């Protein structure tokens, strides 16, 4: 089966986010002063072949831990969905 993962990687809450801070501080300049505490991260989608969803989730988790996210500075979450194949 083929599964599609949607992965969100964000800076850890305790760490500074220079990009987010720059965007937050400029929101008032464009008339959006009610927006604050912007955090900027990454969104990744990928497809994985696996026998079942649990196996697919294990592979995605391993990819995040070993390559996609820097666990010292970032946290990740992901969702999975089965991809329908057209015959």
Q: If strands are numbered along the chain, what order do they take across the biggest sheet?
A: 2-1-3
CATH topology name of the domain at 2-15 and 42-83, in short, is: Mth169, Chain: A
Stretches with pLDDT under 50, minimum 5 residues: none
Structural class: alpha+beta
> What is the CATH first-level class name of the domain at 2-15 and 42-83?
Alpha Beta
In DSSP terms (H or I, runs of 4 or more residues), the helix count works out at: 2
Instruction: Quote the distance from N terminus to C terminus.
Output: 13 Å
Oligomerization status of the protein chains: single chain
Q: Summarize the biggest pleated sheet.
A: 3 strands, antiparallel
Determine the strand fraction and express it as a percent band.
25-35%
What's the rounded overall pLDDT mean?
95
From the alpha-carbon coordinates, what is the Rg to the nearest angstrom? Answer: 17 Å
Q: Any guess at the CATH architecture of the domain at 2-15 and 42-83?
A: 2-Layer Sandwich
| Fraction of helical residues | 25-40%
Number of strands: 3
Q: Could you explain the architecture of this structure?
A:
The protein is built from 2 helices and 3 strands, in the order βαβαβ. It has 87 residues and is α+β, with helices and mostly antiparallel strands. It has a domain at 2-15 and 42-83: Phosphoribosylformylglycinamidine synthase subunit PurS (Mth169, Chain: A, 2-Layer Sandwich). The radius of gyration is 17 Å and the shape is elongated. It has helices spanning 18-26, 53-68, and strands spanning 2-11, 42-49, 74-83. The model has no long low-confidence stretch (mean pLDDT 95). The protein has a 3-stranded antiparallel beta sheet, with helices on one face. The relative contact order is 0.33.
């Amino acid at each position: 089966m083929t599964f599609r993962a949607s992965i969100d990687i964000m800076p850890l809450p305790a760490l500074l986010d220079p990009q987010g801070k720059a965007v937050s501080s400029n929101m008032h300049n464009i008339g959006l002063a009610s927006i604050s505490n912007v955090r900027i991260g990454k969104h990744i989608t990928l497809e994985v072949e696996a026998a079942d969803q649990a196996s697919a989730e294990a592979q995605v988790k391993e990819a995040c831990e070993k390559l996609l996210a820097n666990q010292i500075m970032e946290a990740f979450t992901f969702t999975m969905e089965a991809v329908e194949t057209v015959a």
